[in-house]
Fold this sequence. Notes:
This protein is mostly beta strands. It has one domain. It contains no helices and seven strands. β3 and β4 form a beta hairpin. It is globular and about 35 Å long.
Amino acid sequence: MEVSEYNGLYTLYQGSGSESSNRIKLEWMRFYAPDGPCTLTLELTGRHLRSKPVTVQVASGRVTPDTIIFEMQPY
């Protein structure tokens, strides 16, 4: 199942930081991280789902790969 928008509590973990809210538009998600590798994990609290970690490379404000898929699993 593909989800581009989620209405419900979530936490997005980015390296050693995180952001939380009750709505996220995944198709237009932007984040800011220093150059180097950055590991992302998405948690959908109300659904008891957590993604497998996804590592991206940040260089000069660009992220590679520019599209990622969060593979969710129950916890």
